[in-house]
Amino acid sequence: MRIAILGTGPVGIALGNAFIAAGHDVVYGSRSPEKDGRPAPVTTTAIAADSADLILTALPGAAAISTLEAVGDDVLAGKIVLDVSNAVTPEGALAYPNDSVGRLMQERFPDAKVVKSLSTMYHGVMTDPTALGATTVYVSGNDDDAKNVVKSLLSDLGWPEASQFDLGGIETAVGPEHYIPLFFMTLQAVGAPVFNINVVR
């Protein structure tokens, strides 16, 4: 699968390396494509997105929708958009206290297939989930086929099927996104980001 990762920060780089190792074709979309040091080709966000089967937004949540607007509705139509972002203010509060980036993204781009996942954890846990033992990764989205594609990619990252928790439609993305203040509080308490949620039932 050809995956366009929009964003070349630590999250985008970690996921790109992991997907390349799993045999996927990765291209980065960046505002500064001339910079070096990325593990895969880098081009503009619009060109990267247009060439891909799946678009991954590894961006701050507040920037994710505006970046996709620059890509264009026509490019996004019919494509899976895997959103791993969180939207917080500079003070660390929720930017959308009554909503979520995932739901707003689906509303803004109704012809795209938005799936929310991987937003409750540090990028080192995203790409090495078994290091912590059994933990949980949430999946939200309206399109079942798109969610199944994302679940397959999660398996490629090392997430067992039993650890993948499908919350339902994209409206449920509000739950994982609203966990982020607790994530930061936990990080402050434990002093390191290598932790995650586990649903035990």
UniProtKB/TrEMBL annotation:
One Pfam family, short name: F420_oxidored
- Coiled coil regions in record: none
Q: Where is the Pyrroline-5-carboxylate reductase catalytic N-terminal domain?
A: 2-86
Gene3D superfamilies per record: NAD(P)-binding Rossmann-like Domain
Q: GO MF annotations for this entry?
A: oxidoreductase activity
TM segment ranges: none
Keyword terms: Oxidoreductase
Supply the InterPro entries for this chain: NAD(P)-bd_dom_sf (IPR036291), P5C_Rdtase_cat_N (IPR028939), STEAP_metalloreductase (IPR051267)
Name of the protein in question:
Pyrroline-5-carboxylate reductase catalytic N-terminal domain-containing protein
